[in-house]
Design a protein that fits this description.
Low-confidence stretches: 133-138
Oligomer: single chain
Shape: globular
Largest sheet: 9 strands, mixed
Mean pLDDT: 91
Order of helices and strands: EEHEHEHEEHHHEHEEEEH
Amino acid sequence: MREVPLRECERLDDLMHRGRKLIQNTQEFCFSLDAVLLAHFPQLRPRQRVLELGTGTGVIPLLIAEQVAHIDAVELSPVMAELAARNVWLNELEECITVREGDYRQIETLYARESYDWVLANPPYRPVTRGQANALTGVARARHEFTATLMDVVRAARYALRYGGRFALVHLPERLAEIIEALHAQQMEPKRLQFVQSRVDKAPNMLLIEAVVGGAPGGLRVLPPLIVHDAAGGYTQAIREIYGDA
C-alpha cells in the first residue's frame, strides 16, 4: 500500500481486508454497513467484469477486487470520484479497478452496451417529495433521489449487462414492489432476495436483491434474514464473519 497525505476533513480507515485502507471525507457521505453487505452478496467469478453505479468512496471495488477480472466504477460527484480514484491508487489496484466521473443516467456516453457480467448499485433510497429539495443538504441528499431515481438505476444496469448478466442492489423493503416492477420493465427477473434486520425481533430495514437479464419468470429464492445485532447489542456472528472477511 502506498502512503498518501490526508487533506482537511479526511481520515484513513482500515477495511480489515488484505491490508487495504480507505480515505474518507467527513464532510461527504461515508460508507456504511449496506455497502459492505452488498459487496458480499453477489456470487462472483474470476473472469467476470463488474460495473458499480455510484461508487462513492470506492469501497465496494476495494472489497471485491481480487474476485473478478476487472471493475469499472462510475461516480457523479467530482469530489467523490476523485476520492475513489485516490483510494484505488492508495491500495495499488489501478490494474483491476477503473474509476470514472460521470452520470449513469447518460450511461450510453460512458460504457459499451451489454459489456458486463455484473452490475452493483447502492443507490439513493428515498424519493424526493415536495419541499425536500431545500430542506435537505449534504449527507441527507445522498440518500434521496435528487440525482437518480430507482428506474434510472435499473435502466443503466440493463444497458450495461449482457444477456444472462446479473444485477445486485441494496435498497429499502418498503420499495420492493417498485423494485420488481422496474426490473420487469427492463427484462430482468429477480432470483435471490435477502432481508436485513437490525435485530431478530425487528422488521427488516434493508434488502439485498439479485436479478438476471432474460431470466425465466419465477424461481425467486428468499434467503434467511440477515440479523445485524444480537440481544446484547453487538454484531451477530454472521455480521462478524462478513466484517472479518472484509
